[in-house]
Design brief:
The chain is α+β, with helices and mostly antiparallel strands. The chain has one helix and three strands; from the N terminus they run βαββ.
Length: about 50
């Protein structure tokens, strides 16, 4: 069975770059056998979650 790791990231416009670096690093070093479900929340998106 494949393990799914849920990831939720909430940030404002002041943290767009650090959030992007964090997500990139995490995904670049993740094992390929694992699947991740990522939700992002930012006021730029209207405060809702985007997949």
């Amino acid at each position: 069975m494949q393990e799914i790791i849920p990831i939720v990231v909430a940030f404002d416009n002041n943290y767009c770059i650090p959030a992007g670096v964090s997500l990139y690093s995490m995904l670049a070093h993740a094992k390929r056998e694992r699947e991740s479900k990522t939700l992002l929340s930012n006021p730029l998106f209207g405060g809702g979650f985007k997949r």
